[in-house]
Design goal:
This protein has about 250 residues and is of the alpha/beta class. Helices cover about 40% and strands about 15% of the residues. The chain folds into two domains: about 10-115, no CATH class; about 130-250, no CATH class. The protein contains ten helices and seven strands. Strands 5-4-3-6-7 form a five-stranded mixed sheet, with helices on one face. Helix 4 (about 70-80) crosses helix 6 and helix 5 (about 85-90) packs across helix 6. The longest helix has 22 residues, at about 95-115. It is globular. InterPro entries: DUF8040, HARBI1-like, HARBI1_dom. Keywords: Hydrolase, Metal-binding, Nuclease, Nucleus.
C-alpha cells in the first residue's frame, strides 16, 4: 500500500501534486511566453540567458536533485511575488529546507554577478542617443545618465513596518539607482525605508565610503530631479520651468 497507518492516522507524502520542479520549469519555458513573464518576472530569453551566465561563470553548480533553472525559478517566484517558502515548496515539490538553501545560493550568485553587470558607463565617446539627436547634442555631450529614487516593495518585520510604509501605504524600500542611456543600471543603493525622501538617501549614498558611489569623471555629470541638490556633477531641472509635455499642454489653459 502506498500509504501506511501510524498512530491511527494515514501517512501521506507532502509533495505529490502536479509537475515536479524541473518539469514545471520546462513547461513554463516551452509554453506561453506570457506565463514566464508573469511567474518569474522575466521573459523566456532573459531567463535562459541568466541561467547560462550562472552556469558559464561557474557561479552556481547544479545539485543532483535541483538544476540551475529550477533554483532560479524558485528565487524569482519567491522574490517577485513575495511568497513564503512553503508556497514555493508546494509549487516546486520540495521541502522548505531545500527552497531556503537554493534561494540563498541564487541570491549570493546574483550578488557576485552584480559586480560584473553593474558597472560604469564608457566615456570614450559620446553616446549615440546624445550624438544622434540635435536636441541633445552638444548640450548633453558630457551627460552619463540619470539618477533617481524608486519605491520597491519589500517585506519588513512588524516592528519596523511603519518606517517602511511609504506615502502610498505600501511596505517598500527607497532604492537609489543610476541608469545610462542603454537603459542599464550603473549603480544601485538599497536599504532605506519607504518613508525616507530622496534628499535624505542621496547624501548618505555619497558620503559613506563602503557604498562605493560611482562619481562621474571630471567634466561629466548625471541628470537628477528636483529632489536632489544642484551641486557639481549633478544637474537638476531649472527652477520654475516647464519640461514635461503635460505641463506645456496644461499651461495653454491659463
Amino acid at each position: 500500500m502506498a500509504s501506511q497507518l501510524s498512530g491511527g492516522r494515514v501517512r501521506m507524502p507532502e509533495h505529490n501534486i502536479g509537475l515536479r520542479g524541473d518539469q514545471y520549469i520546462q513547461a513554463v519555458l516551452n509554453g506561453n511566453p506570457i506565463t514566464c513573464k508573469t511567474m518569474f518576472r522575466m521573459e523566456v530569453p532573459a531567463f535562459r540567458y541568466v541561467c547560462d551566465i550562472l552556469r558559464g561563470a561557474l557561479i552556481m553548480d547544479p545539485t543532483e536533485r535541483v538544476s540551475v533553472n529550477e533554483s532560479l525559478g524558485m528565487f524569482c517566484l519567491l522574490v517577485g511575488h513575495a511568497q513564503g517558502q512553503r508556497i514555493v515548496g508546494d509549487r516546486f515539490q520540495h521541502s522548505s529546507k531545500t527552497i531556503n538553501r537554493h534561494v540563498k545560493m541564487v541570491m549570493r550568485a546574483l550578488h557576485h554577478l552584480g559586480r560584473t553587470v553593474i558597472r560604469r558607463t564608457n566615456t570614450d565617446r559620446v553616446h549615440p542617443y546624445i550624438a544622434g539627436n540635435p536636441h541633445n547634442y552638444p548640450w548633453f555631450e558630457k551627460c552619463l545618465g540619470a539618477m533617481d529614487g524608486t519605491m520597491i516593495d519589500a517585506t519588513a518585520p512588524s516592528r519596523l513596518s511603519n518606517a517602511y510604509r511609504n506615502h502610498r501605504g505600501r511596505i517598500a524600500q527607497n532604492v537609489l539607482c543610476l541608469c545610462d542611456f542603454n537603459m542599464k543600471f550603473t549603480y544601485v543603493y538599497t536599504g532605506w525605508e519607504g518613508t525616507s525622501h530622496d534628499a535624505r538617501v542621496f547624501p548618505d549614498a555619497l558620503s559613506r565610503r563602503r557604498n562605493q558611489f560611482l562619481w562621474p569623471p571630471q567634466g561629466y555629470y548625471y541628470l537628477v530631479d528636483f529632489a536632489f541638490p544642484c551641486i557639481e556633477k549633478f544637474m537638476p531641472p531649472y527652477p520654475r520651468e516647464r519640461y514635461h509635455r503635460s505641463d506645456r499642454y496644461s499651461g495653454r489653459q491659463f
